C-alpha cells in the first residue's frame, strides 16, 4: 500500500479537500485504484451532532456514518463508497484506547499519548486503507490521507507525531507528503510573498514531517522566481512545487495538476513510474468545458434554515449543479431564509419579507432541504403551498417532504392544526410522528441512518419513471420523524400519492402529486449519491421540469439515460475575478469558488 498525506498550512479553508480529491482522481486516471481517509482532530466522535453553521453539512454514508463533508467530496470525485471508519476523529481514537484500557488490554501499563494513542492512529490507518471502496474485492493501490486543520494546531499534535512515525514505519517509496500552503499577494506591494509558506514548512519539519511536494494556493500562477525561492528555502525541488491558482471551475483542478506534471512528482516519490500510465481525462475535460460554456439560466429557490452558510447544503448544491449541467443550463440558486417568508417578518422586517417572496416568485423551481428544529417551519410550509398552488416544480427532501404533507393536510384536508410532533407534541392531527425505534435521550447516532431500500408502489408515477422503472432503489437516510402511517389512507383519498414505501409498507419514502407538473417529496437524501455525469434522479427531474424538459426525460427512461460519464465533483476551492456565483436572498454572493458561469461552490 502506498500513502499520500495532504496537510495544510498558514490558514484554514485553502481547499485541502479538493486538493486531496484531485490528487486521488489524477492517480485514478493513471490506472491506479485509490481510497481516502479524512482525519479530523476534534473530540467529537463524529460530525452528527455538530451545527451546520459551524461545520457545514453532515455527510451520510451507506453504512450510516455521519461524517465530515470532505468525505462527500472524495466520493463525488472518485466515484467510490466510503465507510464511517474512513473518517478518523480524536474522539474515536481516544474512545477505542480507553475501551482497551478498561478491558485490561494494556496489562497494567501506564496509558499515554505516545505510544498508545499514536499507535492506535497508525493501526486505524492501516486497517481502513485496505478496505475496498470501489466495488472490487482487493485493497486499493494508494490511500490519500487528508489531515484536517492547520499545521501548528494543538489538537492535531498526536496525529502529526503518529504520521511522522508512520512515514518511517512504511518506509521511503511508500509515503508522499504534499503540503498545501498559501502564497498571498499584498495589494500594496503587488508581488507574491513566500514567507508564510516558508514558516509553515519550517513548522512542519520541526514536527518531524518533511514535505515532498508543495501545493501553493494563489490568485494567479506562481512566477518562476517565486518557485525558485520556495525551492531554496523549503528544500523542495522546483519540479515538485505546484501552483494551484484560481480557476473558472473546480473540475479544472485535476487538470491543473496534470498540466504541471504533479502526477509524475507523486509517482516518482512512490516508485510507481513504471506501473502507472499517463493520466486520461477525456470525459472529465469535456464536462469541464461544457460547464464553462453554459449560459441559459435556471433559477432554484432554496428555502432553508441555514442559508447563511452555503456549506450547510453542500451536497444539495452539488446535486443541483450535476443536474443543471446534464440539462445544459447555468444554475443560479436564490437563498431564501424560511423565516423571512412568515407573517411575523412582514411586521418586523417588511423589506426582508418582500425580498424573500420576490425571490421565491421569481424562481423556476422550489427546493426545501432537510433540517431540524422549528425555526422557519411555517415559512417552509408557505413555500410548499406556493409551489403547489402555482404549479411550480417542487422538491422536498426529508423535512421538506414532511412539510409538503403538513401543508396538504392543512390546505386540502382542512386540518388547520395539523403538524409534526417535532414542532407541536400535542397537535390533535399529527401528520408526522416520532419513529418508534428512535431515542429521545441520546442525540448522536440514534436516527434512522444510512442506506435503506425504497419500493415503488405506482408504476406510472414520475418518481418511478425517473428511476428508470425499477422496482426499488437504495438511498441514504438521516431522520427521526416519519409520516404518520395512520393518516396515509386519508391523504391518498384526497389525491396525494405515496409512490415509494419501505419493505414493511408502513414507512412512507416518496410522495408526489400526480396532477402537478412536478411536486415530489422524498424521505431520503438523494443528494448524497449524486455524481457529475450521474445526477440524482429526483434532482434531475426538478431541473428538467424547471427547464421544460421533463416529458422528454421521462419518455427516454429517466435519469438512467442521462448519464454523461463516470466523473465526479468537489468542494469549495477557488474564486476568480468575475465574482459571480450563488445568488443570496440579500443580493450578496456566497461560496469560495465563484465564476461567471453560475454556481460553483
TrEMBL record:
Keyword entries, A-Z: ATP-binding, Glutamine amidotransferase, Ligase, Nucleotide-binding, Pyrimidine biosynthesis
The name this protein goes by in its record: CTP synthase
Pathway: Pyrimidine metabolism; CTP biosynthesis via de novo pathway; CTP from UDP: step 2/2
Task of the protein: Catalyzes the ATP-dependent amination of UTP to CTP with either L-glutamine or ammonia as the source of nitrogen.
Keyword Ligase assigned: yes
GO molecular function: ATP binding; CTP synthase activity; identical protein binding
All residue ranges annotated as the Glutamine amidotransferase domain in the record: 310-543
Signal peptide: none
Gene Ontology BP annotations: 'de novo' CTP biosynthetic process; pyrimidine nucleobase biosynthetic process
Domain CTP synthase N-terminal: residue ranges: 2-272
Catalysed reactions, as listed in the record: UTP + L-glutamine + ATP + H2O = CTP + L-glutamate + ADP + phosphate + 2 H(+)
Sequence similarity: Belongs to the CTP synthase family.
Organism per entry: Solanum pinnatisectum
EC number annotated for this UniProt entry: 6.3.4.2
Superkingdom as given in the UniProt entry: Eukaryota
Pfam families, per database record: CTP_synth_N, GATase
Amino acid at each position: 500500500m502506498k500513502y499520500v498525506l495532504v496537510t495544510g498550512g498558514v490558514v484554514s479553508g485553502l481547499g485541502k479537500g479538493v486538493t486531496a480529491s484531485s490528487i486521488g482522481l489524477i492517480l485514478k486516471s493513471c490506472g491506479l485504484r485509490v481510497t481516502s481517509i479524512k482525519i479530523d482532530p476534534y473530540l467529537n466522535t463524529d460530525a452528527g451532532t455538530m451545527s451546520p453553521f459551524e461545520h457545514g453539512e453532515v455527510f451520510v454514508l451507506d453504512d450510516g456514518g455521519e461524517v465530515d463533508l470532505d468525505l462527500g467530496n472524495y466520493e463525488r470525485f472518485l466515484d467510490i463508497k466510503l465507510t464511517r471508519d474512513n473518517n478518523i476523529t480524536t474522539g474515536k481514537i481516544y474512545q477505542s484506547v480507553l475501551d482497551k484500557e478498561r478491558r485490561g488490554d494494556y496489562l497494567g501499563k501506564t496509558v499515554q499519548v505516545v505510544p498508545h494513542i499514536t499507535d492506535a492512529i497508525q493501526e486505524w490507518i492501516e486497517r481502513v486503507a485496505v478496505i475496498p471502496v470501489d466495488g472490487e474485492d482487493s485493497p486499493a493501490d494508494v490511500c490519500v490521507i487528508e489531515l484536517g486543520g492547520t499545521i501548528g494546531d494543538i489538537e492535531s499534535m498526536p496525529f502529526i507525531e503518529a504520521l511522522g512515525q508512520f512515514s518511517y514505519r512504511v518506509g521511503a517509496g511508500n509515503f508522499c507528503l504534499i503540503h498545501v500552503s498559501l502564497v498571498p499577494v499584498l495589494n500594496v506591494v503587488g508581488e507574491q510573498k513566500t514567507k508564510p509558506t516558508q514558516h509553515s514548512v519550517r513548522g512542519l519539519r520541526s514536527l518531524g514531517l518533511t514535505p515532498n511536494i508543495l501545493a501553493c494556493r494563489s490568485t494567479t500562477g506562481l512566477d518562476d522566481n517565486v518557485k525558485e525561492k520556495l525551492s531554496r528555502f523549503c528544500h523542495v525541488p522546483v519540479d515538485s512545487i505546484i501552483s494551484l491558482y484560481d480557476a473558472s471551475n473546480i473540475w479544472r483542478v485535476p487538470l491543473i495538476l496534470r498540466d504541471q506534471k504533479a502526477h509524475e512528482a507523486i509517482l516518482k516519490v512512490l516508485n510507481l513510474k513504471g506501473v502507472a500510465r499517463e493520466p486520461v481525462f477525456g470525459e472529465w475535460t469535456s464536462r469541464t468545458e461544457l460547464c464553462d460554456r453554459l449560459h441559459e439560466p435556471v433559477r432554484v429557490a432554496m428555502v432553508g434554515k441555514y442559508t447563511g452558510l452555503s456549506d450547510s447544503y453542500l451536497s444539495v448544491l452539488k446535486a443541483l449543479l450535476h443536474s443543471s449541467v446534464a440539462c445544459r443550463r447555468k444554475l443560479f440558486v436564490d437563498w431564501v431564509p424560511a423565516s423571512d417568508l412568515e407573517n411575523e417578518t412582514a411586521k418586523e422586517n417588511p423589506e426582508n419579507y418582500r425580498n424573500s417572496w420576490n425571490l421565491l416568485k421569481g424562481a423556476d423551481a422550489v427546493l426545501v432541504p432537510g433540517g431540524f428544529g422549528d425555526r422557519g417551519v411555517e415559512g417552509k410550509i408557505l413555500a410548499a403551498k406556493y409551489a403547489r398552488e402555482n404549479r411550480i416544480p417542487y422538491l422536498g427532501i426529508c423535512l421538506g417532504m414532511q412539510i409538503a404533507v403538513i401543508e396538504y393536510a392543512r390546505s386540502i384536508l382542512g386540518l388547520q392544526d395539523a403538524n409534526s410532533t417535532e414542532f407541536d407534541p400535542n397537535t390533535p392531527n399529527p401528520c408526522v410522528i416520532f419513529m418508534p425505534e428512535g431515542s429521545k435521550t441520546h442525540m448522536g447516532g440514534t436516527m434512522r441512518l444510512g442506506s435503506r431500500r425504497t419500493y415503488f408502489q405506482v408504476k406510472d408515477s414520475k418518481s418511478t419513471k425517473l428511476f428508470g422503472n425499477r422496482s426499488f432503489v437504495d438511498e441514504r437516510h438521516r431522520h427521526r420523524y416519519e409520516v404518520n402511517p395512520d393518516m396515509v389512507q386519508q391523504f391518498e383519498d384526497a389525491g396525494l400519492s405515496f409512490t415509494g414505501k419501505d419493505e414493511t409498507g408502513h414507512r412512507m419514502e416518496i410522495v408526489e402529486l400526480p396532477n402537478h407538473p412536478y411536486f415530489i417529496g422524498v424521505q431520503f437524501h438523494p443528494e448524497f449519491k449524486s455524481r457529475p455525469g450521474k445526477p440524482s434522479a429526483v434532482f434531475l427531474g426538478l431541473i428538467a421540469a424547471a427547464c421544460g424538459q421533463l416529458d422528454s426525460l421521462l419518455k427516454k427512461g429517466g435519469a438512467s439515460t442521462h448519464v454523461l460519464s463516470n466523473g465526479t465533483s468537489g468542494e469549495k476551492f477557488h474564486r476568480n475575478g468575475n465574482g459571480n456565483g450563488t445568488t443570496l436572498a440579500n443580493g450578496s454572493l456566497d461560496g469560495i469558488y465563484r465564476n461567471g458561469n453560475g454556481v460553483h461552490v
